[in-house]
């Protein structure tokens, strides 16, 4: 049976992504701190609570990947909460009284874009 | 809490569906329009080893060249102008950022595009236009020189030469690729390094896959929506696990429904400056691969653009705001139908 080819169709979607994805990593002053994924998430939630209070800290976000050796993670957050999450992690200055900082490597509304970041890539 | 905190820059996703056999199908021209690609990745479900024919195409991707401190005025030399007229090479300044530095690119159409900061633009003295993505105060200008129409010795030629050679002798690292011309001849005077695109393959076991229906692009009849599908594809390429418990503290990500389990899948990535011609060759080979009966009903091909190229689709201006993503994804089905998803970030034109 020869199937009829599907007709051409084009859809333009603006801001359809419900989420934003962030690639971040945590840098410590002295390099001898280890965290589990749960502790990492808890640290971010604490930061949110400090800046935005209980209500601000209540919005959900996901830790999609966590690399324990590099302390890097990919987060998924609703796009309406991106700015809040970003500002909160910027202001986190210490973990268990060791000073630390979050570095944001990439932010994108598409998770797929995080797998092909030309700024991080060594092509030669 | 102030509502401005909840706003985000815009993003665009253009979805198309069509059939490769359709005469008016634009799949090839769409791929050719996207000039600067830094990585492609190929996902083949129900496949354990890279098929020979596909491997042949992937390992025959053309080399690219890395040249250090290449003076931009070299493009005006006679042999370079001749090469431009013959049509075809891609050049992009490397390690330069579109929101911080001067970025230079040459398109196969013969256009030399300079995206310059305010100081360089004012010193250079070539006519340009303000960048589309400036704020109230213009801090970035785009100068386009059509190398194809430039004739040696004319007044216009002399002027461009004077500007690029004496007023501001711009020099940056470059990446070159592709084309009908022999880049080795052209680069003989320069210190260059030939690079091969790097191929990596990974076999994934027991993967949850969303079920795709070729005729249902928007996911209206209960299958996956384009955003869900792209998210899933991203999760696969970043090895994000789908099987999270409902009570999991860390993540609530799950594979979109309806889904099926795939015993194994092959994920191949090629990294390097990849010319659009090579992408087209690969696309043709994927279609041939699917022509024979296979367990899988589809294969996906993702092409990532460079975040810092001055153009994205065709010669549309590209910018960087929070992210500079510009990528497209083909899903090829067994009946020669295809889906094409083209995604851009905040400072990017709508794909053609």
UniProtKB/TrEMBL annotation, chain A:
Organism superkingdom: Eukaryota
One of the record's GO cellular component terms: multimeric ribonuclease P complex
Molecular function terms from GO: ribonuclease P RNA binding
One Pfam family from the record: RNase_P_Rpp14
GO biological process: tRNA 5'-leader removal
InterPro entries hit by this protein: Pop5/Rpp14/Rnp2-like, Rnp2-like_sf
Coiled coil regions, renumbered to chain: none
Keyword Oxidoreductase assigned: no
Record's keyword terms, sorted: tRNA processing
Similarity comment text for this entry: Belongs to the eukaryotic/archaeal RNase P protein component 2 family.
Protein's UniProt name: Ribonuclease P/MRP 14 subunit
């Amino acid at each position: 049976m020869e199937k009829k080819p599907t007709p051409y169709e084009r859809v333009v979607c603006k801001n359809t992504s419900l989420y934003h994805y962030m690639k971040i990593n945590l840098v410590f002053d002295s390099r001898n701190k280890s965290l589990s994924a749960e502790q990492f998430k808890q640290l971010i939630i604490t930061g949110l609570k400090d800046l935005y209070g209980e209500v601000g800290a209540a919005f959900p976000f996901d830790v999609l990947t966590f690399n324990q050796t590099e302390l890097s993670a990919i987060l998924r957050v609703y796009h309406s909460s991106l700015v809040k999450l970003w500002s909160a992690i910027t202001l986190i200055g210490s973990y268990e009284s060791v000073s630390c900082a979050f570095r944001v490597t990439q932010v994108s509304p598409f998770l797929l874009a995080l797998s092909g970041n030309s700024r991080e890539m060594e092509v030669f | 809490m102030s509502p401005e905190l909840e706003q985000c820059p815009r993003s665009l996703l253009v979805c198309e569906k069509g059939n490769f056999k359709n005469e008016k199908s634009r799949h090839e021209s769409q791929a050719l329009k996207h000039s600067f690609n830094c990585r492609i990745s190929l996902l083949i479900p129900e496949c354990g080893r890279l098929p020979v024919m596909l491997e042949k195409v992937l390992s025959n991707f053309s080399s690219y060249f890395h040249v250090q401190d290449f003076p931009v005025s070299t493009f005006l030399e006679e042999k370079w102008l001749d090469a431009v007229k013959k049509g075809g090479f891609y050049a992009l300044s490397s390690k330069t950022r579109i929101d911080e530095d001067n970025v230079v690119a040459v398109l196969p159409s013969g256009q030399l595009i300079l995206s310059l900061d305010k100081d360089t633009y004012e010193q250079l003295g070539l006519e340009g236009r303000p960048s589309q993505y400036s704020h109230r105060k213009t801090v970035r200008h785009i100068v386009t020189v059509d190398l194809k129409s430039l004739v040696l010795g004319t007044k216009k030629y002399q002027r461009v030469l004077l500007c690029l050679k004496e007023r501001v002798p711009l020099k940056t690292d470059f990446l070159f690729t592709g084309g009908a011309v022999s880049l080795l001849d052209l680069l003989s005077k320069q210190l260059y390094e030939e690079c091969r695109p790097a191929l990596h393959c990974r076999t994934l076991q027991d993967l949850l896959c969303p079920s795709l229906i070729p005729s249902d692009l928007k996911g209206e009849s209960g299958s996956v929506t384009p955003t869900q599908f792209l998210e899933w594809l991203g999760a696969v390429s970043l090895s994000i696990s789908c099987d999270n418990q409902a009570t999991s503290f860390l993540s609530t990500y799950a594979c979109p429904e309806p889904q099926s389990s795939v015993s194994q899948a092959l994920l191949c990535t090629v990294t390097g400056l990849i010319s659009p011609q090579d992408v087209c060759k690969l696309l043709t080979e994927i279609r041939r691969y699917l022509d024979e009966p296979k367990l899988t009903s589809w294969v996906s091909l993702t092409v990532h653009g460079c975040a810092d190229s001055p153009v994205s689709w065709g010669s549309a201006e590209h910018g960087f705001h929070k992210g500079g993503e510009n990528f497209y994804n083909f899903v090829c089905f067994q009946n020669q139908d295809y889906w094409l998803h083209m995604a851009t970030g905040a400072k990017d034109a709508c794909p053609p």
